[in-house]
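Let us work through a complete example step by step.
Step 1: write down the sequence.
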Amino acid sequence: MYLAHSFMSDEKRQKHRQPLVLAVEDNDDNLLLMSYTLELLGCRSICQKEGSRTLFMAKEYQPDLILLNIFLPGMSGLDVIQCLKGELLTCHIPVVAVTVLTGTQDKKTILKAGFDDYISKPYMIEELETIIRRLLGRKFQLCSVSRI
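Step 2: predict the structure and record it as tokens.
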């Protein structure tokens, strides 16, 4: 790995350092907006529309972070988080709930279910950046510095 990494072009090396985010959203417009926002923030993204495939995608790609809509057809975000946190390969991945729910009790329920954080729609890019920065720490900071 070290030798292969040392022979990578600067562009490939920079992409290798970019955090990978799995974005799960059933609305096409919201998913597109989320992927553009992540790109703007210097992250790579994988977009997924179905809650039922999220566990497979998380195991396969091992993202640094998952942005998960609560209201998904079929398997809800609350169901998905239980599967993610119950699996050895995915339990360590931070997961942020992305939802229209804004009540205090809703937030408590979501965090108690196992989400690492919560963001309400519509959200500001700065809010999402703050959450990503807090959850990914140094990995995100290195990426932000390389964009400047």
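Step 3: interpret the result. The CA atoms of residues 1 and 92 lie 23 Å apart.
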